[in-house]
Amino acid sequence: MSGWRAAEELVAEEFIQAEHEGKDRRAIELLREALGAQPDYTALAATHLALLELPVAPEFGFDEPDDLRAIRALRSGPSLRWPAPAAPELDDRMLGAWLGRSIGCALGKPVEGWMWPHNGLSSWERQKTYLLGIGPDEWPVRDYFPEHSPAEAITGEAACPASTRDHIAFMESDDDIRYTVLGQLVLQKKGADFTSETVARMWLTTLPYEFMCTAETQSYRNMVIAGDLLRGPEVDGAPADVDWSWMATHLNPYREWIGAQIRVDSYGYAVPGRPGLAAEFAWRDARISHTKNGIYGAMLCAAMIAAAFTAETVDEIVEAGLAEIPATSRLHADLRSVIAICEAHGRDFARFEEVIAAIHEAFGHYDPVHTNNNAAVCVAALLMSDGDFHDAVTFAVMAGWDTDCNGATVGSIVGARAGAARVPELWKGRLNDTLNSLVAGYHPIAISECARRSTDIALDLLDVG
After folding, report:
1. Which residues have CB under 8 Å from 291's CB, separation 6+?
2. Tell me, what CATH number does 248's domain have?
3. Residues 403-418: tens digit of each pLDDT
4. pLDDT confidence band for 36 (50 / 70 / 90)
5. 309 & 369 share domain
């Protein structure tokens, strides 16, 4: 999915995005009719701009700002907060978080490409069919995915052999891990004073364009177009005169997809027990490429990760995340709905298939890499597992859609909650404490060294905020 998309595809997605944002449906249809069947680039560009400028319909019912102050004004209550754990507990929990992210990502990588229905099977049913083709003990997921199955003629082939149980010996490079590394580099460079410009410059100097996908691809290109605004030096940390709204929306119909949500783990690691500050850090990062629910998903997950270091229950972790996003947003409403789904099924892990089917029924109208449906999977994984590491990570992947992203996010949360010592050897042992990220200075690197650096950052920021 990396690389610049054709104008026809971008505008087609912008029509869908306009509907999600609650813009007037009649106005949308008039623009669609005016565009015609075979538009040229000029017509496509004009239609894109017209769709962006359409106002939200009065009857939409949601209020979804991008500004941090406005977001905070629409929250359901104040931020939750706990004292940070002391050493050596902090060291153990930080390593647990890094291991959990790596494990969840590696587990989901071979089936990430199965986001869409195939041969009459939904995203999650493809996994079930693939594993049951090997044997009845393979489902629910009990181990990393095998490279092959007798059922792959029906389901499709697994990808990423280096992350299958046949071969796994390290955490291979993946965008979910590279962004965690980048977040750490941003914090090492600027600490709590980093800005959106810091993040943007880190992208431009550290990540090749072909490493980007969807919203990040579009935003990266827009940064290059912005030129000198992002090439000049910062002066006393003052932000450059950058229109971040333009950066996140220009030819970027993916701005509410999952990209920002997968970039924020290091911000949660940086301020354990302080979900409000983690959410603010996530906002600074997310707004360079995302808007509305794309930003909120990033804030939610960063907050949940920060809370996981100290909160006693998964309910507290989820509520700490929800407390950082507008109660007037689609994401907040969707997550309240998924909580109700879990409660209706008694939060009984034995009923995981019923819950997954209900989630797909409720949120299947979103793209497989949208923020809202995948955030719903993450919340359900926490609630249905009651924080058990194995159950949480496997649920996050078995639920389908963006499997490696959700596995990684949930892995961070339950890994931070459990600590490395309680992460099952079945999962952590075969990574051999090794990450190959393709980021300079982090290829290869010990996962434990990444965790140590995150602990150093957290200790440096103890008195901030």
Report:
1. 66, 245, 248, 249, 255, 256
2. 1.10.4080.10
3. 999 999 999 999 999 9
4. confident
5. yes
